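Model: You mentioned two targets. I'll fold them one after the other.
Researcher: Yes, keep them separate.
Model: Target one:
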Amino acid sequence: AILGPELSKIYYTFLTEHIYLATYLIAGAVQVLNLFVLAFLNIPKPKKSINIKRPLSEILLKKELILAILSAALGFSLMSFIMTATPIQIVNICKLGNDVNANIIQWHVIAMFAPSLFTGQLINKLGNLTLMSLGVICYLLSIYFGTVGQTEYHFWISLFLCGLGWNFLFVGGSDIIAKSTNPREKPIVQGVTDFIIFGSVAFASFLGGNLLITIGWHSMLYLALIPIFILTFYIAFLWIRNFSHSTMKV
């Protein structure tokens, strides 16, 4: 989050005939460092398990897992949708410059990953539904600040909240997915859910830039409210169901 945008600021015009090419080359070079990190990573092999393997359809149709997939897929897709379009809006349309854009993206990425240091504790204390509800609120505020103004500070607040929303929704959903299966079921369930999540992200990435050019910044942000409301209604449905079940037990 800190190193990437700073390198972008320095190198995006380094090769004057091909703007941004040097940035991509530097980004590729940085990834080589991962090889040295992975060389010292030792993941123990899973122990053999005698758990019963349930049909995939039975697992995926559980209400909690549907919420988890919706939360992770929509949370990640919305982030990709907004973040893909934002640099174009900042640099090419609002003419705020590449340095401003780099600073905004820098804090956006910090907001995405820094909360993971304590998101697990929030899940333990508040529960997944509460964490996801906070993620939805962050996205609503992100869209609000993105539509009320187009200064550096509006974009900064909007993208920072977008990063927080991503963390709460994606981590909250991933936590449920990880806990919903036994060791024999995990590989196939993880594969299917990842396909759904990252397929949605790829579609949202293509959609973001195209909608920005065709219908404009404000309209594309208003369209982003549709998946947010879908997720909100499903979270509310589970809140009501859990409340009614607890009342019946009492």
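Model: Target two:
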Amino acid sequence: VRSFHFSMMLAFSVAATMAFAVASARNVFETYHAEITLFGSAVVLLMGLIQLDVIRIPFLMQDHSLMHKLNLNKMNGLAAFLMGFLFSFSWTPCIGPYLTSIVIMAAGSADSLQGVLLIAWYAVGFLVPFLCLGLFTAELLRFFKQKQRLFQWAIKLGGIILIVMGCWMGMQAVNELKNGQGIGSSSLPYEERELKNEQDFILYDQHGAIHQLSDYEGKTVVVTFGATWCTYCVMEMDMLNQTWQSDPDVVHLVMMQPGGEDISKDEMIAWINEKGYEFPVLFDEDASVFYKYGVSGLPTNYFVFPTGEIHGYVPGYMTAEQMKEIIDMTKAGPQ
């Protein structure tokens, strides 16, 4: 019995991981993230109302699964694995709404790691009771029989949690749309210019001027990734504001991401003006350049040779002296 439960748990974990892999296809629809999240919030709300029995959809109140009569005398690890794998794709009124909601939230999460954690925690929460049932079968079956009303309340609590999470997702999506991150939110003609290499990007600054990295070939370029909430980023930008025009052969570009964990684009422009920053601040609204450059911490400075190739990057705060030293090395070109 214990071997059966272990094999079934392993199969369910594989299937849950596959479900997240499918959900991760959201990267194709990054442009429509806000709209997809808003739609997902409506689905999660619907699942919560179904769990609370406020809405009844007959089709969803039935079990839907592949039916096959098992010969328990011939049960083995492989059969248990296949059973668990197929079971994870079945629909049951008590489990289906939760799995549906988790997959939707994983697909609309801010990053892949967050989605992986959501699926992983769901798998743990689902599988631990199966493991306990395999170890303490008689005791748990007796407990379930005695506490049936308690489980009914647990289902209602789960429905309330789904409704709260659905409302939270909806608020996040509405905020994104308000900040101009929905369909057609950007009227800037990025498509009119072509990227020349993998590191190239085309973005607009706080003044509406377009910047394309490949346009600066022949000059040394420093791309600084930062955020308004990052203390060391602000310290570095304060320093940069005094030195960014000191060398005509060096171009400084600061990259920031409005919305999400940072303030909105309009608020960011007002913040830049209040700080008196005159260097170009580029708005990476969909975080595509942050993702392309693999930025994992702030501030991060990338140094680009005059030939257009990436020299390297430095994570963390840099003093003016440190930055000048690496800029001088970058100006010399590839060795």
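Researcher: Noted. Anything on target two?
Model: The beta strands are 202-204, 210-212, 220-225, 250-256, 281-283, 300-304, 310-315.
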